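Bench log, entry 3. Co-assembly request; chain sequences pasted below exactly as received.
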Amino acid sequence: MADLTFKPVIGLEIHVQLATKSKLFCSCSTDYIGVAPNTNVCPACLGLPGSLPALNAKAVEYGVKAALALNCTINTATRFHRKNYFYADLPKAYQISQYDLPIAEKGYVDVSTEEGGSYRIGITRLHLEEDAGKLVHEASDGRLVGADQSFVDYNRGGIPLAEIVSEPDIRSAAEAKEYVTRLRQLVRYLGVSDGDMEKGSLRVDANISVKCSDGRWGNRAEIKNLNSLRALERALEYEIKRQSQLLAEGEEITQETRHWDDVEGVTRATRSKEEAHDYRYFPEPDLPPLILPEGYVEKVRNTLPELPWQKMERFMSSYELNETDAMILSEHMALADFYEACVEAGASPLRASNWVRTEVLRVMNEQKIDITEFPVDAAALAQLIAKVDDNKISTTAAREVFDTMAAKKVSLEEAMKICGVEEGGISGSDLEKMIRNILENNTDVVETIKSGQDKKGKKQKFLQGLIMKEARGQTDPREAASLLAKLLEE
Amino acid sequence: MKLYELSAAQITRGIHEGKFSASEVFLSCLARAEVLEPQISAMLTITEESGMAQAKAVDEAVASGKKLPPLAGVPFVVKDNMCTKGIPTTCASKMLMQWKPPYNATVIELLAEAGAVLMGKTNLDEFAMGGTTEHSVYGATSNPWKLDCVPGGSSGGSAASVSAGYVPFSLGSDTGGSIRQPAAFCGIYGFKPTYGLVSRRGLAAFASSLDQIGPFARTVEDLALVLNAISQKDELDSTCSCRPRPDYTKALNAESLKGRRVGVIKEIQEYAIDPEVRKAFDQTLKFCERQGAEIVEITLPTMVEYGLPCYYILALAEASSNLARFDGVRYGLSTDAESLLDLYTKTRAQGFGLEVKRRILVGTYVLSSGYYDAYYLVAQKARQLIKQEFVKAFGSVDTILLPTAPSPAFKKGELINDPIQMYMADIFTLPVNLAGLPALSLNAGFSADGRPLGVQFIGQWWDEEGLLSTASLHEKTFGCAPIAQGGVR
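Structure output for the full assembly:
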């Protein structure tokens, strides 16, 4: 018994809300955040008698785009089905979805593993479907439990979703998290979804079972609606433990739908419906088959940008960045573009990487802005970096100039003027005069050095620091150091 | 001649020439309806006020010398399963009593653009399910030729109101014969267009892949005029075709049927058909021959043997899904309930009538996972075979002649408790819907006791013109459809 080991088998179903302006089957707005309930609705998305669906071409394009990035095969002839069930948030009492012929199948995505390698997770299918409305339950005391009133808001009803179903290839909670992170990055990168889990733009259901080393398989449980990466990871970890324990004790695992209680940190069986669902799928007669025109897939493929992981590879090979830096810089397309513009404008790749990762990200954080709104353009930053590279100004001075450019939104020249930084700075006889001055003001330190007591060179470094401070970074530290050494020997 | 007796074409012409006003026509039609309604009960709503306002608007347009649209000032009525903005649309069901749609069906918009004046909404079998117009929560409609008989269904109210002279034309919907069969029973023209010719947007769906809106009229010219108005492409109905539509009135000038091949279906010969219907059929066939048509025997075995079961599986499967939206949550009837499930079951138990419930149950059954393959899938395959048979048949013929129904109008109550027998009455009409073909039913005489006898011509896909052309020739020989007196002299 003690030797038994358990391996989890996890598959994820992810609903991604596509970033179209209008709904999947009508022209109502998809912008439902903060909108009064039931205002973005029309006869079609309310399923009024006589209303009919008309497919949104943009949603198809976004679906195909995401599927291509996931290395899927696109089905150029597909159709929609009706999934029939009764629920108050479902106006027509059926959801229009794709069933036997999804728009895309058989793809994969590579995720990196903790050991630093990469692991391939299969994508079973990607299909399009409409979202349901939102239910709000309210009890007289305002709480959800024991609610005696329910309200329905159909603003979300009919919003286009791409459901991405993975193969049961995922082997740990961490891997699941990595996979969702990758997908989220991808859909954002492509601009097909904002991928925001908090807003519900990206929703995860997890199927999980556990295999025992003695050959026994546990039944599968489905954990619904995991709305954060943390919840996903915690819920899976809990569930792996729970199922393994049950199997270890020789218990049967009930096949059921479970709900993650984030406060208690446990999964719970949702009240099981008495009988299994029979959705009575059948082809949607109100929509003709969806036939993608000749060349359509290629056209969409041509709009695909370089994907983040491709970009990362390229950054590592052509710019010799390490993996961590390459990953940070390729995470968001706009940031990567900024970095590359910087390099193209003449900054050395490594120094540009340092600047973007530290200074640029810091200012973005401080100002709470997006890279697209960044006050310093990439070319100006490149110029500044070049000045440091050419020893025209010191790193310290450059930082000050950069902060001024960012804070006051001024040009490089103006910022240098404001900071009193001059190109080339203090050198030659000016520098010598300045050093002599400092030495005169610090005769005790000079004495100590001259008497040979500064064995570790600490005192000399102190003097060097004073020089740099006095020069406000506007001098070549190497020139200052050699001059200082020379003067100390006098 | 009374104004209500005029055809749509005559009305617009007369208004244009200043012989009478649209208001006078409207009042004449309204008065005719008011006299006969107590006997016939064809109407569920009469839109007197809004109709009068529309008619006055036409008169003002005439006075200001504006160019008149093709159906200016023509009163019409529509089956009460087509949405009319702000006007009750009940589907003859308790489920939708009092419901006023917030939008117009596309056909209603198009007819308004064409200048036609809506006079009201007509009775039907609840949600268009039935062949007698007895399955209406508002009670049955009578056949204007014989008050103790049914007008046919489900568009019985629309057929009866044209037949009785309330209006020159009306709209019905045809899922398995619901325009043609009542047209035959009421002795008028009923036209079921090719699937996809007329937008279904705003038609409360019975079976989406079979439903099609079409006109009833007493003249072929009126059929063509109405078809011109309503057969536009509609981006909001994805099943509505984008192909260009011809001017259907140009099809009315045929001189003969020379060169046309008329098919008769071999398998029909042994079928139990009322002798008087068969006589009308034979006479129409002779007429075709006299007009120079070549009569060709064709065979459609799958259609005859499997058309009916195939239809009742597919239509009811779709119906069960289409009618699921009536759940008491958003509109229409909503009962007091303890829980959501309770709300559904009580609302649907109280809101739907017997025939609708029967069909929802059958439809749910044939779609359920254990039976889908055995019923729905097999029926889909049969439908494809039937389509292929028609394709083959139309290789050797241009139109097919068929009785519209196996018998003339039957007595009220006769089949109300015999659903199978009632379904059998659709045997000649429903294959047309399975294949999506156009078909036109016309009056081919009367039975000895005064009941109209109907025959239908089935055309090739999109050959509305061929059907109108054939019917106009028939009309030239036998005259247009007479107005029934509805038991009132």
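Chain A touches chain B at residues 43-44, 46-55, 82, 84, 86-88, 91-94, 150, 152, 278, 280, 282, 285-288 (CB under 8 Å). The radius of gyration of chain A is 31 Å.
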